[in-house]
Write a structure and sequence with these properties.
alpha/beta, 174 residues, five-stranded parallel β-sheet, single chain, Rossmann fold
Length: 174
């Protein structure tokens, strides 16, 4: 890919990011060296309202703080199909992080579906660093709910938000 072509590439890193983990941030940081423009796209799923730990607004704020050191990264929300959002924004690359082979099998199916619906979409997989391969948002949420130290698993903005979210439960335990 020539540099002129690369300047036009807009990648989208979609997810719920409830919360963002250091694995997500690792993939994002490495991708920011490859793609000139990346949007962290937070899915607003009306069917899951109330099922996420953080509200959409809280997640957008956490993501903005966690990615502020990456000048080519923006944070937005979208609802509906990812491919519709990509058409609307002109994005052509879907960025996905993988932790293990089991992630790949699921992500491959989604990549094929997205490509069928939007032929311009190319999915790029980046493996999370080995030290983050065990970290998932759901595990971090559960650990935080028990008062465990999760500071090494998530960016500082996410850790602070998690501690605030569970502050009442922490107080009850002490």
């Amino acid at each position: 890919m020539s540099k002129e072509t690369n300047k036009e590439v807009h990648a989208v890193f979609p997810g719920s990011f409830d919360p963002i983990t250091n694995g997500h941030l690792d993939v994002l940081s490495r991708a920011s060296k490859i793609f000139p423009q990346i949007t962290l796209a937070v899915l607003h799923n009306s069917k899951k309202v109330g099922k996420n730990l953080f509200t959409l607004e809280e997640r957008l704020e956490i993501l903005s703080k966690a990615s502020e050191h990456l000048p080519n990264v923006t944070v937005q929300s979208f609802s509906g199909l990812l491919v519709d959002y990509m058409r609307l924004t002109g994005a052509t690359v879907i960025l996905r992080g993988l932790r293990a082979v089991s992630d790949y099998e699921y992500e491959l199916q989604i990549a094929h579906l997205n490509r069928q619906m939007y032929p311009k979409a190319e999915t790029v997989f980046i493996m999370a660093a080995t030290r983050w391969s065990y970290v998932s948002s759901s595990m971090v949420r559960e650990l935080a709910s028990y008062g465990a130290d999760i500071a090494k698993m998530v960016p500082p903005a996410a850790a602070a938000a998690l501690y605030l979210k569970f502050a009442a439960e922490y107080a009850e335990k002490n």
